[in-house]
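Deliverable D5.2: sample structural annotation.
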Amino acid sequence: MDLKTMTYLVVGATFALYIFIAIRSRAKSTAEFYVAGKGVHPVLNGMATGADWMSAASFISMAGLIAFNGYDASVYLMGWTGGYVLLAMLLAPYLRKYGKFTVPAFIGDRFYSNTARIVAVICLITASITYVIGQMKGIGVAFSRFLEVDFSVGLMAGMVIVFIYAVLGGMKGVTNTQIAQYCVLIFAYTVPAIFISLQLTGNFLPQLGLGSMMADGSGVYLLDKLDKSLVDLGFSAYTSQKGSTLNMFLLTLSLMIGTAGLPHVIMRFFTVPKVRDARFSAGWALVFIAILYTTAPAVGAMARLNLMDTIQVGEIGSPEGNLKYEERPQWFKNWEKTGLLKFEDKNNDGRIQYYGGSADFAATAAANGWLGNEMVKVDRDIMVLANPEIAKLPNWTIALVAAGGIAAALSTAAGLLLAISSAVSHDLCKGVWFPDMDDKTELLASRVAMAGAICVAGYLGMNPPGFAAQVVALAFGLAASSLFPVIMLGIFDKRCNRTGAIAGMLTGLGSTLVYIFWFKGWFFIKATAMAPDTAANWLFGISPGSFGAVGALLNFAVAIAISRMTEPPPEHIQHLVEDIRVPMGAGGAQMDH
């Protein structure tokens, strides 16, 4: 069966499953729409949380970043997994015990202020919309290749699917769908990785294959071969550190605390019956997440090696050294149709020169008559999806990866859109503007808000400010700088008051947004010509994606300082803060309220 037919069958079958689940799980009340009726088993909730968490950035883009950035991209693995531990240990159980199932509801109640609640909604929507843009980019990449259409058409197709099952099912439908999506995405990620690891190293475990010798009998280790292939062509060594240590540290920290402040993941801990179940589901989620995250480094390294070997087919400078234009493999031609892979024959020799810009290699390039890197576009986000094609795996594995990438993007997009719609309908409409709104009207408002968010995210996804994982990193920075500090202070600092919380959120969010737009610009806001987005211009070498950690420190400092200079919170609020940290069953412990 040809690839196109196989892809339609596999992807179509998964879509039919998701939509069937959404219709069967259609939310009939606000409790089912927001928290799935609090009846999800911890193991199943862990699986759904894993799917919610492992977005297009994890499935599609993270291995792509690792493939091209090597050692420096390890910060994504450390930050995202470390942040989940932080969330599970420091925030989730306490928020679940407190009983307010949205982050703005907790902040508004804890800081006894509708203004704090509204500011929290603004922070949540800003971070979540930015995050959804990354998912829409991933959806567009996957659909455009396997429907063989332009990126924008693929994105529109993905929006329609998200609309059907997220708007219909709410949290109940999304949870049940995400359980199925986890099974699809983890199978789709690991099976091709096992095949490629066997092909390259003879080791069936990709995690071990990454450190193994090549299966060609050369006695060379995979990473050593990859380093040599890159250095010989003027790229930096794969295993070398290229960025500054300070920036790597701050990016890791930003991703960690941004993870802990993500509202769509926090909401998942309200779908289980008890506080104890929230802890168990967090542990199971970490197990399910680790399966993909320990596989990603191998997928990235093997994808880069396969790409280099495809284009550089012989000795450098030899007549057969570079891929001929007319001999491009089918996978290359397929991805060219999407606009995400492009080359330009700059010296008109009928061959494709793909090399880096190191000073040591400049003389070699000049001697060969090369006029510049002719692979003018290799979108990082195509690497995971293209890797099985490059490795010439069976069509069913390629179709499976397509289904997995789409599942990862759809699952996280649905969770984020639910967080946005809950913030608008529950926290603004019912919590602030129309407190007497009945359940039916609130449910309608939620669905309208979600539909609007899908349209906005899709529109912005047409013009993303970077690769999927880079866009997501910006979203984590926004969550880190705005929501994480105030949630932490709300749980662990009874002296923090509403004035300090509001000032802290505005300071963290405002400073991070200014820094991002100053260097990156985007859409209708142009970056200043005085500060292009390069390490030489960043403040102390801190990239826009790393600045969230600095914004968080400013948030903490402002919130604590202003709280100490103004009146303390009311006595009942201070007692409430002390009570939520008392273990369940101990004297004075409060139950959900």
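Annotation notes: The chain has two domains: 3-301+398-473, 304-387. DSSP finds 24 helices and two strands in the chain.
The annotation will be released with the project's public dataset once the embargo ends.
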